Amino acid sequence: MSDFTRRDFIKLMSAAGAASAMGWPIVAQAARRRVVVVGGGFGGATCAKYIRAFDPRLKVTLIEQDTKFVTCPFSNAVLGGLRTIGSITHGYDKLRQNHGVKVIHDRATAIDPAARKVMLAGGKRLRYDRLVVSPGIDFRWGAIESYDEAASQTMPHAWKAGPQTSTLRKQLEQMRDGGVVIIAPPVNPFRCPPGPYERACMIAHYLKQAKPRSKILIYDAKDKFSKQPLFMQGWQKLYPGMIEWIKQSDGGAIERVDPKTRTVYPVFGKPQKGDVVNVIPPQHAGTIAHTAGLVNKDGWCPVNQRTFESAMHKDIHVIGDAAIASPLPKSGFAAGSEAKVCAAAIVASLRGETMPDPSYVNTCYSLVGPEYGISVAAVYRLKGNEIVKVKGAGGVSPKDATDMFRRDEARYAAGWYSSITADVWG
Amino acid sequence: MRQSCRALIMSAVGVASLLILTVPGQSAELTRGAMLSVSCAGCHGTDGNSPGSVPGIAGKSASFIESAMKEFRSGARDSTVMGRHAKGYTDEEIKLIAQYFANRK
Ligand SMILES: Cc1cc2nc3c(=O)[nH]c(=O)nc-3n(C[C@H](O)[C@H](O)[C@H](O)COP(=O)(O)OP(=O)(O)OC[C@H]3O[C@@H](n4cnc5c(N)ncnc54)[C@H](O)[C@@H]3O)c2cc1C
Fold first, then answer.
1. Could you give the CA distance from residue A394 to residue B8 in angstroms, rounded to a whole number?
2. Which end of chain A, N or C, is less packed with Cβ atoms under 10 Å?
3. Of residues A16 and A141, which shows the higher confidence score?
């Protein structure tokens, strides 16, 4: 009671007043505060769970269009034949049962920031005190000529996991030995910077056993990529001669595709036909972020990096891939980390408290082979209004590591997957 | 503060705490320790309860966690990834984190 202030006194008096007037309480007030979260992926589900953990008096409603979530993390392992789709699929029962999150399976179609309401495809309208938007990414169809949603049936992106992952896996299974697999990654920023190169590894792992005369060509829109020296060392070691990386300045960027002949057309250089073609198109924030006016001219959402409150609309927070949180990458790990900071910011704000200084973290594990893992890590703090890396911390796995170190990292990658999916949906 | 005023406050406090006690589910304090520690859950599981191959840290003693973190940081203890993470925290932060996980189940 030593910090008892005049403000507390007034709060208590009105509480006492309300209590005697209605027989029931300030708490009912607090309990009526409602947070709505749009998107039940890495960012949204984590945020919903941690808001409830920080303050179980708050009502939290999670809007997710699908009843099951198939994770992108470890979907490359499905392509490599190391995992099944079932093993990377998660449901929402535990969020309901263990954490008291109300989950509605429907699609958010519009947001009215003035009235603080979210509209759902099924006709419901939900009022909120605070809204969290974590819709992930959508694709900039047409940015590569002729690559539209229909084309993605024959040339899958598999950059949202689920049926697209299965399509790509099936094409690999049906391919002849000696076939050409093309992977075409986009320019930065995009979801999961090391993802395309881990994918090359996992596809190579499969081909090495099943179709050893085949080749993988990476047509890259960039001149360098995440964990590049470690990946290239791993390719050399496990898949010598199988993976060829064509960088942007050597004609790697593609500007057009022909889905009928499965051909990619580089900006300069010869067209290349593939037996299996995985186009990873340029991306932007999920559609609802556009509809709701939360994006900038590049299609991503500017936010206050301490609270993740939108720079465009008050009381709406954006987290995960959709948000501009650089230097944090667009990863599931980072989305979860942002979600917890955002949850604390919302709870503190609804309680009229100041949030303690935030800390953010990321690690991206990649599997080069089943027993060969590598990682990149960083710890971040707020400096002024910006997220910055803590100097001296983080970095990539050592270049000269032993086989045992790589094996341990592969094992810990799986451990990370178990832990984070339990942290998000468990 | 005058005597009568204090009495009034005390009875208000009484009512308020009574009300709070009747609420199912307590709200937790948002401490610095909690803010720092929830970022470990991505690998160590919620509250440090790991379901997989990463070692769990829930309920381990504060002194163990504190010395392990400092040894990871200095390199005295071998690690694949913890050395890179531990370097991101000061002595004071490590103490808060160690306390936080020591108090989890
Ligand atoms: C191949 C691949 C491998 C990856 N590997 C890793 C890895 O190893 N580690 C890592 O950390 N990250 C990895 N990632 C990145 C990770 O998947 C993303 O960064 C992460 O999913 C982002 O979380 P999010 O919450 O922003 O979006 P998501 O997790 O995509 O969640 C968005 C959710 O919102 C829902 N939604 C969208 N719009 C609406 C709407 N209007 N109404 C209702 N629901 C809606 C969607 O259905 C979806 O469930 C990988 C990505 C890929 C593609």
1. 54
2. N
3. A141
User: Is any atom of ligand 1 closer than 6 Å to the C-beta of A239?
Assistant: no
Q: What is the pLDDT of residues B39-53, one digit of tens each?
A: 999 999 999 999 999
Binding site membership of A173 for ligand 1 (Cβ less than 6 Å):
no
Cross-strand partners of A276: A181
Contact between B35 and A357 using a beta-carbon 8 Å cutoff: yes
Tokens describing residue B68: 């392990």
Domain B2-102, what fold?
Cytochrome Bc1 Complex; Chain D, domain 2 (1.10.760)
Q: At residue A336, does pLDDT exceed 80?
A: yes
Q: Is the dihedral of CA A3, A6, A9, A10 positive or negative?
A: negative
Number of other CB atoms surrounding residue A98 within 10 Å: 12
Q: Model confidence over B50-85: pLDDT tens digits? A: 999 999 999 999 999 999 999 999 999 999 999 999
Bridge partners of A127?
A: A117
Between chains, do A57 and B27 touch, taking CB under 8 Å as contact?
A: yes
Write down all domains in chain A, each with its CATH number in brackets: 6-65+106-138+284-356 (3.50.50.60), 148-282 (3.50.50.60)
Of all residues in chain B, what percent carry a pLDDT higher than 90?
A: 71
Q: Which atom of ligand 1 is nearest to the CA of A364?
A: 9
Query: What's the whole-model pTM score?
Result: 0.92
Q: How confident is the model at residue A362 (pLDDT cuts 50, 70, 90)?
A: very high
Alpha helices for A211-324 (secondary structure H): 228-238, 287-291
Compute the distance from residue A225 Cα to the ligand 1 centre, in Å.
21
